[in-house]
Amino acid sequence: MTFAPDFVSNGEEHDCAGDLPFAITSPSHGDLNQIRGWVYDQKSALSRVLARNGAILFRNFGLTNDHEFDEFIKAFGFPNFTYAESLSNAVRQNRTERVFTANEAPSEVSIFLHHEMAQTPVFPSKLFFYCEQSAREGGQTPLCRSDVLLNVIEKNQPDFLYKCENLGVRYSNTMPAKNNLESGQGRSWRSTLSVSTPAEAEIKLQTLGYSWQWLEDGSLRVTTTVMPAVRTLLDGRRVFFNQLIAAFKGWKNEDNDRNKAITFGDGSAIDERDMGRVSDSAEVLTFDMCWETGDVVLVDNFLVMHGRRPFKGTRRVLASLVGSDEHSAFGASTAKLY
Ligand SMILES: [Fe+2]
Fold this sequence. Notes:
Layout: E1 6-7, E2 22-25, H1 32-53, E3 55-59, H2 66-76, E4 100-101, E5 111-114, E6 126-133, E7 137-138, E8 141-145, H3 146-156, H4 158-167, E9 169-175, H5 189-193, H6 198-208, E10 211-214, E11 220-223, E12 231-232, E13 238-239, H7 244-250, H8 258-261, E14 262-264, H9 272-285, E15 287-289, E16 296-300, E17 304-308, E18 311-312, E19 316-322
Parallel strand pairs: 2-3
Antiparallel strand pairs: 1-2, 3-16, 4-19, 5-17, 6-16, 6-19, 7-18, 8-15, 8-17, 9-11, 9-14, 10-11, 12-13
Bound molecules: fe (ii) ion (FE2).
């Protein structure tokens, strides 16, 4: 029997959040060879849909474990972006070379909307998620189109957007001495920076252009250079590509105070009321991806923010990151350098 999934969504009108993600469902499970062949055949159609909609759901394909998920990803031929090399501050565990557990933070913790690793100079262009086991309750993955959000901010908060575009932002965070599984951002400085000694850490930080401070308990506080808060895609769409929402809503554990976690590039404070309005606008635009076991979602990290709702029961969602290639890059940014 041929493997012929249906492109379910009507492909033309996709500027509103309700059409996110574009769904592709299969009437029956395929075997791994059929699935890989289908991906290979549909690659250019899938790329077009992803660039337009920002996320694609693959449902009922019949992927049953992490290794099959790994094979599915490989069929796309994208460059891998390894967790070990990344500067992500989340604690994760690898299943295969390219597949790892999504954020291990406790089930009652919300992971707020963010672009993966937008607070660091190196970030993936795309993300794959695979639902190995759906939660008994909750555990949706909120998805929000960043270009649509930017248009709303421009309409409702033009002065705030002007500052974001012209000043850029700086991120600060404290990396613990040891991995802290209780936190959504508990990855140790040794693991984050792929080093084993403070001297090696300082060399790496210098290369990144970060400033830093060692704290008495052995943790490390770092601040980035000025980074753009708004970026332009190669097709001209502007996106709110930063970590502002996640920082203002979520970065408030004992190590990381949100009011100090992000400032504008000139060091001035970002008004919490402005961020409250941005966050409310994003919530209105957000689509909650309700997982069924076996689902895969491919997300364009430049175009769509994601997060995680709290959940009950066991939820295992695996992830894999894609590096950048010549087809997935930003155009020029407008942030000034301070
Ligand atoms: Fe994430």
